[in-house]
Amino acid sequence: AMDTDLSSQDRKDLDKFIKFFALKTVQVIVQARLGEKICTRSSSSPTGSDWFNLAIKDIPEVTHEAKKALAGQLPAVGRSMCVEISLKTSEGDSMELEIWCLEMNEKCDKEIKVSYTVYNRLSLLLKSLLAITRVTPAYRLSRKQGHEYVILYRIYFGEVQLSGLGEGFQTVRVGTVGTPVGTITLSCAYRINLAFMSTRQFERTPPIMGIIIDHFVDRPYPSSSPMHPCNYRAGEDNGAVYPSVEDSQEVCTTSFSTSPPSQCVFTVTKAHFQTPPPVVTDTLKVPVMGLAFSHQLSSSRLSYQPAALGVGSADMGCPLLFAGGLNAAHPHQLIGPGKDGGVPPIPSQPAHGAQADQERMCTPLDGVHYPAATPSSSEDTETVSNSSEGKCGSPHDLLETIFIRKVGAFVNKPINQVTMANLDIPFAMFAPKNVELEDNDPMVNPPDSPETESPLQGSLHSEGSSGSSTGNTHDDFVMIDFKPAFSKDDILPMDLGTFYREFQNPPQLSSLSIDIGAQSMAEDLDSLPEKLAVHEKNVKEFDAFVETLQ
Amino acid sequence: PPRTHHRAPPAAVPAMNCRAEVLEVSVEGRQVEEAMLAVLHTVLLHRSTGKFHYKKEGTYSIGTVGTQDVDCDFIDFAYVRVSSEELDRALRKAVGEFKDALRNSGSDGMGQISLEFYQKKKSRWPFSDECIPWEVWTIKVNVVNLANEQERQICREKVGEKLCEKIINIVEVMNRHEYLPKMPTQSEVDNVFDTSLKDVQPYLYKISYQITDSLGTSVTTTMRRLIKDTLAL
């Protein structure tokens, strides 16, 4: 007999799935708005902590925020989990861009198998979320954030509020999964009316893909607003240590079963499973104090680069140039990777950093309404870091004292032969070095080339050339020096230069000579009948050939 | 904690109707590859699982699928694909061939590429195994020629927007939770999944393409007709 009611085991599993689905949903959304490309590796062996068989990293701060918002509850009818994505400019204006909603409705699917079908469909829904988060307008905005604006996120639980999205907002459905206790729905409502801030404004700066803007000197925010803390907060120097999901004893090792082909059994073995204590709270109502200002609500600025994805600082240019003690006594030193001269961009921090902004706390549970904070809220100043200045000194001073000498491209002589004081020009080595050697240099004084008469050449030089009846082109082009680029003139007896000299005046092609060209059209026409007669004679052969093609 | 086994109700055998989805895009020549890859990768993201590891008693565990963002160079667009170099290579190869065929067709630049998911049904000798498709995605491509840089810039944005719509369409289809092959036993897994990749496991699939000329017929018939006509003299 089929159980129509959910067994307690199934119920526990389902609750756990929904909880972790909610947490992973938040991770995917927030990570998609960090402004950088996300990359995780596939692993053929399950690790036990990859929920829904997907490699989605858990940013501890984000998990912490999500858990705080949920406060032990799960999405249910009327209680939705919302992730609000907003944009904040350097002037402090802010605007909601998207609301991602994880909702539950009453439509139950009693027949569905929790342990197997629901789990796999939740996995599919997460994949859809990964795809959809890249196609809403906020994605492109978030990839360009840094100089003029930043993207913020906020998680709340309760009733969905879409009023901050302006008129005519659009909705996209990510997907639904039916469960025995209700249908999970994931959707996104996004603003399309960017009137008070046109997108064009944010596209002025060219997109810098995949690099956290903070690594450069520019401080986009003139005020002391701490929107760009420089230090990497791995949790060591951060006061609040956020427990990662792995630490929280809620690990899911999954194994599936297909004993007879028609049966699929899903078993969940839990390494100590800790049921969170039930917390009875009122529905969270987050006050909305107007469209443009939502500072009183808790929000976190996040631009995070997990260490696992870390790029080494080796490609950041040459910080060593700016360490004290570098002098101009090493003029031959070429500058670091790939740079052609000049000075590489000065990194303002030594390494990539997770810029976990200190969040502004808001606990609406106790009903306290915080006053609208001004954009440069003082409680945030502590995260301003001056480490950039400390490490690099004053970069501009150093710039003037360093003289970098660049050896010209394609140089094939040893560097110590270079005597020019300022070798900033390419091919500098080809400039005349020792004048007395040039007389013997066949490059400079070539032997006389064979004199050939050619009508073409005659016609070229018939006008405007002084005394060039012999076709000697030496008189037209006074060649002081002839060192063709890229040629090694000290290895082969005959090289490009010699070749060029010798074969400068080739004889005219016979087919181009005037004689043949003078043949009249009439003569051509006369020869036609003869040619046609030949073809007619061979017509049978041609037909046979055509037959073979058909 | 004790293992619980749920006895599933006897499943009705689903009618083997093949689901067919068609998408259409108009792109510039140099955008063909990226547009095709974006669509194919999005579909395969939803149609790939982690590697199965069968254990005793008929249980199996599933590996982990990683994902990564891909930025397009010729389109203002980004998409997510499964982190599998083997899969990416296979798709790039197919899309490259399609693009070359489009270019060499000399026609107006119309064609379509199909991604078909199928199941294998073993037959007795001397009959070869049957391939029964259960889902086919067809992308119809129309290559446009643009006159100047300004048009190209507009095309970059427009095609980007169009692809966003296509991704939403694909996700809509995926969300219908329609027929999927049953999870196979170890002996049957190669009839349902492509187990040749080392890090992920897509459903068995094949990619094919067709180039159409402006009359809607395939190129080979046109060429034959052309030769016949010219030689008719």
TrEMBL record, chain A:
<feature type="domain" description="Autophagy-related protein 13 N-terminal">
    <location>
        <begin position="96"/>
        <end position="196"/>
    </location>
</feature>
<dbReference type="GO" id="GO:0034497">
    <property type="term" value="P:protein localization to phagophore assembly site"/>
</dbReference>
<dbReference type="Pfam" id="PF10033">
    <property type="entry name" value="ATG13"/>
</dbReference>
<dbReference type="GO" id="GO:0010506">
    <property type="term" value="P:regulation of autophagy"/>
</dbReference>
<dbReference type="InterPro" id="IPR040182">
    <property type="entry name" value="ATG13"/>
</dbReference>
<comment type="similarity">
    <text>Belongs to the ATG13 family. Metazoan subfamily.</text>
</comment>
<dbReference type="GO" id="GO:0005829">
    <property type="term" value="C:cytosol"/>
</dbReference>
<feature type="region of interest" description="Disordered">
    <location>
        <begin position="438"/>
        <end position="472"/>
    </location>
</feature>
<dbReference type="GO" id="GO:0034727">
    <property type="term" value="P:piecemeal microautophagy of the nucleus"/>
</dbReference>
<feature type="region of interest" description="Disordered">
    <location>
        <begin position="333"/>
        <end position="392"/>
    </location>
</feature>
<keyword id="KW-0963">Cytoplasm</keyword>
<dbReference type="GO" id="GO:1990316">
    <property type="term" value="C:Atg1/ULK1 kinase complex"/>
</dbReference>
<feature type="compositionally biased region" description="Polar residues">
    <location>
        <begin position="374"/>
        <end position="389"/>
    </location>
</feature>
<protein>
    <recommendedName>
        <fullName>Autophagy-related protein 13</fullName>
    </recommendedName>
</protein>
<feature type="compositionally biased region" description="Low complexity">
    <location>
        <begin position="458"/>
        <end position="471"/>
    </location>
</feature>
<dbReference type="InterPro" id="IPR036570">
    <property type="entry name" value="HORMA_dom_sf"/>
</dbReference>
<dbReference type="GO" id="GO:0000407">
    <property type="term" value="C:phagophore assembly site"/>
</dbReference>
<dbReference type="GO" id="GO:0000423">
    <property type="term" value="P:mitophagy"/>
</dbReference>
<keyword id="KW-0072">Autophagy</keyword>
<dbReference type="InterPro" id="IPR018731">
    <property type="entry name" value="Atg13_N"/>
</dbReference>
<dbReference type="GO" id="GO:0042127">
    <property type="term" value="P:regulation of cell population proliferation"/>
</dbReference>
From TrEMBL, chain B:
<dbReference type="GO" id="GO:0000045">
    <property type="term" value="P:autophagosome assembly"/>
</dbReference>
<dbReference type="InterPro" id="IPR012445">
    <property type="entry name" value="ATG101"/>
</dbReference>
<dbReference type="GO" id="GO:0000407">
    <property type="term" value="C:phagophore assembly site"/>
</dbReference>
<protein>
    <recommendedName>
        <fullName>Autophagy-related protein 101</fullName>
    </recommendedName>
</protein>
<comment type="similarity">
    <text>Belongs to the ATG101 family.</text>
</comment>
<dbReference type="GO" id="GO:1990316">
    <property type="term" value="C:Atg1/ULK1 kinase complex"/>
</dbReference>
<dbReference type="Pfam" id="PF07855">
    <property type="entry name" value="ATG101"/>
</dbReference>
<keyword id="KW-0072">Autophagy</keyword>
<dbReference type="GO" id="GO:0019901">
    <property type="term" value="F:protein kinase binding"/>
</dbReference>
